[in-house]
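Before we proceed, please read the two lines closing this message. Report back on whether the structure tokens fit the sequence:
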Amino acid sequence: MLENGLVMVAIIFLINIVYVSFLTMRTILTLKGQRYLAAVTGTMEIGVYVIGLGLVLDNLGEIQNIIAYALGFGVGIIVGMKIEEYLALGYITVNAITTKLEEDIPNKLRDVGYGVTHYLAHGRQGERLVMQILTSRKSERKLYQAIEELDPKAFVISYEPRTFHGGFWVRKIRR
């Protein structure tokens, strides 16, 4: 079966997609502090890597194998990122800044399940309401939609927090 050049190219391409998807997931799991899951993923990753690289090195004179390996690497990065987006691991903190001070936006967000800390701030053109909202990445799009509905002109920034200590969300996360 591996004697057929086209089959060999397809196998190398697919193996490298799987390898780089594992690589991407392992990197993300490591950054999110999931050390044991990252180690298991890394073990699978290196097994697939050795098989794929072995196929290429055994047939190094075949340029199409090297091209398939390189293309599989690039496609694997995209596939790995899509997998991570689907899994949506971890949490994000969203800072939403609005000029709508008269509306009770924080409580409207709390009513749909978000933890919100808010305070008044002063911007270049007057007072602003600043809200800090911690949510799971799975709920990220719903939160953005809720903010958009409450104030389409709100300024929104998000980032991933690395540690949690105390407060409403820490109790919820541990459950």
User: Anything to note?
Assistant: The beta strands are 91-98, 115-123, 126-136, 155-159.
